[in-house]
Amino acid sequence: MNPVIIVFLILSTLVASSAFVFKDNLIDIDNKILNTPLTEEVTEQDRANLFIAINNGDLNTVQELIKAGVDVNTKSSVGFIPAIMSAAENGHLEIVQELIKAGADVNLKSLHTFTALIQAATNGHLEIVQELIKAGADVNYINNRECTALMYAAENGHLEIVQELIKAGADVNVEFERGTALSLAKEKNYQDIVQELIKAGADINFLEKRAAFIEAAKNGNLEVVQELIKAGIDVNTSNSEALIKAVINGHLEIVQELIKAGADININIPGEWTSLFEYAVQRGYFEIIQEFIKAGADDSFIYNQGYTDLMIASSIGNIEGVRELIKAGADVNAKSVYQENTALMMASLIGNLEIVQELIKAGADVNYINKDGRNALLVATERGNLEIVQE
Each residue of 101-114: pLDDT tens digit? Predict the structure, then answer.
């Protein structure tokens, strides 16, 4: 064949191949352009439109807004409700699925600490509950009302959701002020849910145990308190009512037992601004104060009540501290604000003879009478501290 023709054919082939490659590149570029979201900045109105679309169940608009770049984890301006929670609450399954597919965080919380799972469980949206669990929703999340999704489902009579949550590992014995999921179901007489919860291990005697525990703490029944702690009762049940009752009634041994078992010492007395520790200080419960301090309570409040370092050292039996403070010139007759107690009275109460002797030697007034009409002698007599009475 003519060499010129051969060269022509080779060049023709190369040009045709290049044309195809160039055409393929153009198609690829076209596709990229078509699939690239608009670079316009997402506006607040777009976010508002997302919630309008969710509330109306408008899946197409939700999809368009997601494609335009609206943040799927955005929250409403009122109540800070996450988009997925709004969809779950309103029962829009496909929108929930779309939001999850776009990366929505299923455990986001609203201002009032509710989640998508809690809202779906409350409103009886079984398929949404299943979808959220599949996407990693926390079935044991407790909101600021101390409730879980299971508790809301039980209270509202949603048997299948209760079953679904139990299957996913929900704790059937989480408690709050009104009880547990079981007691909520009992209140509403949802017998099928009651049976389901019992089958899953719910404590059928929870309310009775809790009542007995609080009553024992209030009345100073140490053995009952110990037995119930041993049986696994939560010492902080019913907002730490057992510890509150024990402190208010001055039951030292029960306070010690509860603190040892993990009772929360940093609590307020219900309906008051006063913390439980402050209450003990104001009432002059020195031995209980000592237990709170040992357990790590913030003792800065004590000084605001007129308690001095010498009083504190005397109330906790710190003899070396007492000696050092006296040596440094501490006022041995200083009085606290509320009960007007002195260091000598505190030492007499706890029965520390050495400290009593040091304070008397340093000039403590043995005849001083406090706000309640007591002096150190009477305090020691009431507590049966005979050595101190003799002193």
Answer: 999 999 999 999 99
